[in-house]
Amino acid sequence: MLRKCLFFMLLFIGIVHFSLGEEIYPKDFYITPRFGFSTLTGTIGIELQYKHVAFDIGYGFTAEPPHEEDGLQHALTYGIRYYFNPHYRTWYFGLGGWIRLDKDEIDMGFIVGHRWRWGKGWDFCLGFGYTFSGSGAPMIDLALGYSF
């Protein structure tokens, strides 16, 4: 299932990337709804970016470690990112994590990634990191967004 989702997401990104040639108009403030699998913006979330700094919040699910059998947990995700280039394709690093709503647990970690931006506002973020508090779970940022 995850392979199919990844395949179709990458296919969609490829089609959009080659069909849209205009670059985004640089400005100081962006609002970016995001959809994907992210420990910063959840399954569905929003990013508010001012110049190099962005604040993320979203709703999603977290998987329990293999030794626990509770399955997926509802979570509120949060984060702050620093983009080295605020307008175009760029590397970023961030702090963030999730609050498990079912168990009242908080995880926080560090993430490093890359944002590909194309067209009039489309972007795709791919990042990896590790939590340093809470469960010690890996952090993943795999999200598609559109900036306004």
What does this structure look like?
The chain has 148 residues and is mainly beta. The chain has one helix spanning 2-19, and strands at residues 29-38, 42-50, 53-63, 72-83, 90-100, 105-118, 122-133, 138-146. The chain has an eight-stranded antiparallel β-barrel with strand order 1-2-3-4-5-6-7-8. The longest helix has 18 residues, at 2-19.
Low-confidence segments, given as residue ranges, are none
Helix content: 10-25%
What does the radius of gyration come to? 15 Å
Question: What is the count of distinct domains?
Answer: 1
Main beta-sheet annotation: 8 strands, antiparallel, barrel
Strand content: over 45%
CATH architecture: Beta Barrel
Distance between termini? 31 Å
What do the pLDDT scores average to?
Answer: 83
Short description:
The chain is mostly beta strands.
Describe the secondary structure blueprint for this structure.
Layout (H helix, E strand, L loop, with lengths): L1 H18 L9 E10 L3 E9 L2 E11 L8 E12 L6 E11 L4 E14 L3 E12 L4 E9 L2
Antiparallel strand pairs: 1-2, 1-8, 2-3, 3-4, 4-5, 5-6, 6-7, 7-8
Q: Which characteristics define this entry?
A:
148 residues; mainly beta; Porin
